[in-house]
Amino acid sequence: MMRRILPILLLLFALALTACSQDKGAVAGTYAAQSNETEIVLTLKDNGKGTWSTDLDEIEFKWSIRKGGELWLHTKEGGVIPGVISDDTITMILPGVDQLVFQRQ
């Protein structure tokens, strides 16, 4: 009896977790923010990869969506840069930079 119920419970649990998070496709796209006189372009791809670009540099990362509409940028060094998704914006607070508001392009 337990062998039949266990796969069903695991499937229901996986579906519940999926329903709680936003769809990557809905968040994927290009966003831009201004920091002083520098434009920062954040590109989020459907496959969970992305880039952080300025006129001087381009940094690749992986990204994921957490509960509550939180976006996490996973750096190659193992760090995480959190952001909050709201409508067509992503807000991030970085040390020494204050708040960055990325607007969907």
Tell me what the structure shows.
- There is one protein chain.
- With 105 residues, the protein is α+β, with helices and mostly antiparallel strands.
- It has a single domain (23-104), classed as Lipocalin, CATH 2.40.128.640.
- 22% of the residues lie in helices and 50% in strands.
- An 8-stranded antiparallel β-barrel has the order 1-2-3-4-5-6-7-8.
- The longest helix is centred in the first third of the chain and has 19 residues, at 2-20.
- The chain is globular.
How would the blueprint of this fold be written?
Elements: H1 2-20, H2 24-27, E1 29-35, E2 38-44, E3 49-53, E4 58-66, E5 70-74, E6 80-86, E7 89-94, E8 98-104
Antiparallel strand pairs: 1-2, 1-8, 2-3, 3-4, 4-5, 5-6, 6-7, 7-8
Structural class: alpha+beta
- Helix fraction? 10-25%
Total number of strands: 8
- The N- and C-terminal alpha carbons lie at a distance of 53 Å
CATH topology: Lipocalin
Residue fraction in strands: over 45%
Secondary-structure element order, as H and E?
HHEEEEEEEE
Residue runs with pLDDT of under 50 for 5 or more positions: 9-21
> Given this structure, which CATH class is correct?
Mainly Beta
Whole-number total of structural domains: 1
Radius of gyration: 17 Å
Mean pLDDT: 83
Oligomer kind: single chain
Number of helices: 2
Query: Main β-sheet: number of strands, strand sense, barrel status?
Result: 8 strands, antiparallel, barrel
Based on Cα principal axes, name the global outline. Answer: globular
Strands side by side in the biggest sheet: 1-2-3-4-5-6-7-8
CATH architecture annotation name: Beta Barrel
